[in-house]
Design brief:
alpha/beta; 8-stranded parallel beta barrel; 5-stranded antiparallel sheet; 18 helices; 21 strands; about 30% helix; globular; binds 1-deoxynojirimycin
Length: about 550
Amino acid sequence: MERKWWHNKIAYQIYPKSFMDSNGDGIGDIKGIISKLDYFKELGIDILWLSPIYKSPLADQGYDISDYYDIDPRFGTMEDLDELIAKGKELGIGIVMDLVVNHCSDEHEWFKKACEDPDGPYGKFFYIEDHKEGQPLPCNWRSYFGGSCWEKLPGHDDKIYLHVFHKKQPDLNWENPLLRREIYKMINWWLDKGIAGFRIDAIINIKKKLPFSDYPADRDDGLSSMDNMLKEAVGIGEFLGEMARETFRKYDAFSVGEVFNEKDSELPLFIGENGYFSSMFDFSTTHLDEESKTRYEEKEITASEYRDAIFANHKRIEGIGYLSNIIENHDEPRGVSRYIKTSDLSEHSKKALAGIYFLLPGIPFIYQGQEIGMENLKSSDIDSTDKLDDCANADIYNTAINAGLPEKDALNVLIKHSRDNARTPFQWSSEAHAGFSTANPWLLVNPNYKKINLEAQKKDDDSVFNFYKELIALRKDPEYTDTFVYGKFTPMYTDMDNLICYKRTGDKTIIIYTNYQAKEIDIKLESPIKTILLSNSKEVRFNEKELHLNGYDLVVAEV
Ligand code: NOJ
């Protein structure tokens, strides 16, 4: 595999609205991020991905962009961003922006012009169809946030437009070369500014199966999941190849795709040598509790399910390309609350989960707050849907109510699955508003902040935070970095439940042993341990033949 500058990097995702508020308006901002650059340096972060900070009505928290060339005043100014890019460079930290080009905002000037003249050039930037009241819609796809993906075109009773996400996010028509040209121009404008690259939003959605047609309904609403259409949409490669050629490749920029529903045959094209993207996220574990979301069953993801999902995905891309590894992001509940049994949740088990995903092949991404062990909200924290914010919440709640759940239970379903879990403000300290802001934050602070906060974590040598620091230092240790970055990946002990173990083989041979359960266990060693490189346990007991692991012990050993 050709070596690229991003292969050995550690990335961190910032959700700007909830990271750090510098001006006391309850909303995080760019100056807040600048004030924490030393924090990233201390941690060992090389790449900072910022969720969108462009001008936006924030209907979907910035994933609805009304001006790709401007910063939303709530987040600061372009000068602030220039300062962040420049100061980041001085510290060796590259800024990665979010590229949201499946859709824009209905307040973008393109859409306004399309509404003024749907038959004019800007009308062709979108999917606009004729439609008379009472007639069937062009297709029955369900928007990701619930309801039909068609909405009346403002000012036109006889026209509708497509939005696969929120109705304030009209889909851009990638079939139109003029639109594509505008997008590439914008991408290059940002790359010229000196950013390191892009995280690419909802990219699989840019190719629609046309002409529009219905798929079998999969809920009582008579609509069909977008997945059904995506399975049949072919030809996305023409757009992605063109985008890579016209933009990223010219700059040797880093690009990481939010890619779902990809077909196996497309993997080499997506992330192989000269692929469309440098990398794509490993979302294999996010599907594990998918069904329970709408079946309303309590479902705890087992250690073996977690292991088998990540191992299979890493094997699937072996020899092809490079994944970006996560345990959570701004769209998912907190990883520690999801992938660790509630009864086993502790600093110790959080560190085990951290070690497992961090030393896999690929680029580790840390989502803000993960490094201090931030958790989901609890049912007792919220007594009404009004306390939450996300535009996806209504669909989760209403679907539960329509399925016959009592209000309290529907609220509990929402609290468990809401994206707001990951969006509560960063817990800096035990001060008011968790030190995030001097004002009331835009979204509630998780009430556990008195206990879980960075200040407390820093003081405790055994904290999750200090463990992340050690993990990063180990991945970057010149002796071992090559093995972690390019070493072969071999799953181990997969016939035993609750063990998550794998080998990395490069110049060195390193084995990651994890006992992902509360019960202790002795395991037979394949080869004798030379050195313990890292562990969440103070004392590791082993001899030539056996290793003793207490509950949730993680041991990284050179053999
Ligand atoms: C994926 C983003 O991560 C999510 O937050 C957003 O709602 C959708 N794409 C639409 O842009």
